[in-house]
Design brief:
It is built from ten helices and twelve strands. The chain is α/β, with parallel strands linked by helices. It has an eight-stranded mixed β-sheet, with helices on both faces. The chain is globular, with a radius of gyration of 19 Å.
């Protein structure tokens, strides 16, 4: 699968001074940088999820004429280069897409699968969105999180809702895909979670394998093969990460009724990694007057990479356009 979007990349400063990699995609009709860079700025995906680096605009460059921006926060053990179907669908429709590799993921710095505290994820998300606003100060901005990224954006929005920094971003809506509220874990995984809480203070950086099957991502075997062969993916998390994640899950469940942003919640009904029951339960607790739940029969953990990805992307695009028009 190939795409011809303009593709600026770079790094920004995240929590604890870590350099975090980000990339963005623009409609091919938008002249975002020089003709030489435009010729080179081609996103191509293969088993290794290869990318081509393009030069960034000077800071004095004026904003581009786009319909809006979608900012993506990826899931556990993956990276920002695995959302090609969404990128293609939105850029073809005139939108820009931004993604970044969170700390300990992909091309970003940090121990794989480790955070010191959940605040790190909030700080990284705030820095990422601020970067987008520097480049696109007026375009309608939407925030999407998949799986772990769904938990990250929900926690970030709920805790930041009353802050001036968040208000300045003017986020128009939230898209949450397969949030990890009800993992379909076995006894061994539950023991690991208990272990994480007990030992996080003593051995915070001790890594454990999540033992997740790549086959649960999609019914398309090429997606599983690409993920398994991708050198930028990993399957380990630390005890501190586990403890912080469990605490955040509990906190978000207790405060989800405070969510006021327009919400699109999506989940594959046949997800073997995270049960859609958790999404259904959370959706009922959200008090936002503008909320939509989309369940995709047969889809696994990554509906945007599954057999009905075109429908998923079309639903996402339609929801964004409706939100902008309202």
């Amino acid at each position: 699968m190939t795409s011809t979007q303009l593709h600026p990349q770079g790094t920004f400063l995240g929590a604890h001074g870590l350099q975090l990699f980000y990339q963005s995609w623009y409609p091919s009709s938008v002249r975002k940088y020089s003709s030489r860079d435009a010729a080179e700025g081609v996103l191509s995906t293969s088993n290794a999820q290869k990318r081509v680096t393009a030069s960034l605009l000077p800071e004095s460059q004026t904003p581009t004429d786009i319909k809006g921006v979608l900012a993506i926060v990826h899931g556990l053990g993956e990276h920002s280069g695995r959302y090609c179907r969404i990128v293609r669908g939105l850029t073809d429709a005139g939108y820009a897409v931004f993604g970044f590799d969170n700390q300990g993921h992909g091309k970003s710095e940090g121990q794989r699968g480790h955070i010191n505290r959940w605040q790190d994820y909030r700080d990284n998300t705030q820095a990422f969105l601020s970067l987008i606003r520097q480049q696109e100060p007026t375009a309608p901005l939407f925030l999407m999180g998949h799986s772990l990224g769904g938990l990250i954006v929900l926690d970030y929005v709920l805790r930041s809702a009353d802050s001036a920094e968040f208000a300045a971003l003017d986020v128009k809506g939230l898209i949450v895909s397969a949030p990890p509220f009800q993992p379909t874990t076995g006894t061994a995984s539950r023991r690991r979670m208990i272990l994480a809480r007990l030992l996080s203070g003593l051995l915070p950086r001790l890594s454990l394998s999540m033992n997740l099957s790549q086959g649960g991502l999609s019914r398309d075997p090429s997606v599983s093969d690409q993920a398994a062969d991708d050198p930028l993916t990993h399957s380990s998390v630390t005890l501190r990460w586990g403890s912080e994640t469990l605490s955040t899950l509990d906190w978000v469940k207790d405060h989800i009724d405070r969510l006021s942003l327009p919400l699109l919640l999506t989940h594959g009904e046949a997800d073997p990694i995270i049960s859609p029951s958790g999404s259904k339960e959370i959706f009922q607790q959200v008090n936002s007057p503008d909320k939509t739940l989309k369940l995709y029969p047969g889809s696994y953990h990554e509906p945007h990479n599954d057999l009905d990805a075109d429908t998923v992307v079309s639903d996402l695009l339609r929801w964004i356009e409706t939100a902008i028009a309202s």
